[in-house]
Amino acid sequence: MDFKLYVITNQNIAQGKDNLEVVKEAIIGGADIIQLREKDMSTRNLVNMGNELKVITKSAEVPLIVNDRVDIALAIDADGVHLGQDDLPIKEARKMMGNDKIIGISTHSLEQAIEAAAMGADYIGVGPVFPTQTKPNYNPVGLELVEKVSQRVEIPFVAIGGIKLDNIHEVIKAGAKRVAVVSGIVGVEDIESAARSYYKNLIKCL
Amino acid sequence: MDFKLYVITNQNIAQGKDNLEVVKEAIIGGADIIQLREKDMSTRNLVNMGNELKVITKSAEVPLIVNDRVDIALAIDADGVHLGQDDLPIKEARKMMGNDKIIGISTHSLEQAIEAAAMGADYIGVGPVFPTQTKPNYNPVGLELVEKVSQRVEIPFVAIGGIKLDNIHEVIKAGAKRVAVVSGIVGVEDIESAARSYYKNLIKCL
Ligand code: NI
Known about the structure:
homodimer; alpha/beta; 9 helices; globular; binds nickel (II) ion
């Protein structure tokens, strides 16, 4: 499993498009991993949406990761689960998911990054790098943490939080090889073209 | 597995008591099954609370059921899970939970009750019997549904929704042998004595 452009859904900010459309366009534009992250949806609706998304991601051979919910990831046979520091501990999640599934962990400090790697995370998220509307209550960790993690942690990490077309080169320069995007792709009119621009800027800087 | 008085947590209405205290007092008063149902809590906090509650319920030999979240039920090795019509389908839940765990299903019509029984539910909830503050958007199903279910469904069912000390005898007369209570026990000052009163009124009418 590796990836460059990680797109995370947010039905609340999608410009009148449903997640099927959002994910389809993002993948065409270059997203090579998708996270289903909807905080206000019932379990049943998440399962139904996840099953629909899986048809798209599977045919595109793009991993589908479920935010927080191991039960939903198992129910839809997703490729993995992404856990925040307030979600299930990775040890419990691994027991349920097995070794073949991807487990990603959000980290907000070098300590958390090292711990997640030690606990067997397949990848970690590092952020929020910049201030972001998606997580307004978090203090940005800055490019400093990206740099430290790139030097100290061996497993793949993805930079997340406020990454825009015009700051992505700084993030890559700081050591990131993967970026995660929500509003910059999911919240714009032309999702496909936004994804394509992110992807281009990303590989240009690598 | 059988029970008479099913108490469901709701930290938001507990009179300054944490759920450990709530559950302890409810069990002393007569609750013989407990459901952890907290809609605004992070997964991590639910796991931690569930693990703490399990110490109490286990030593009292009272089943602990987790609302909605199969992943949390598995993580804390709870006795079962309770699923609403908007939660995981029972088929998926059973695959994850196995046959030894309890699966309960909320039903709001005779059709749903029969379907849940057919799908292998261990018990069903039937309600809301009366109008209730916990689910203000549901139309009460009335004593009529309690009566129909008691005549047509073989698996254990528990009546829920607006059941008070002064209407419990009607519910039992309509055919219920078990009642579930939230605010009438969890939301009062003296939880133990409320649970005891419910229990007494319940068995008096059986
Ligand atoms: Ni009576």
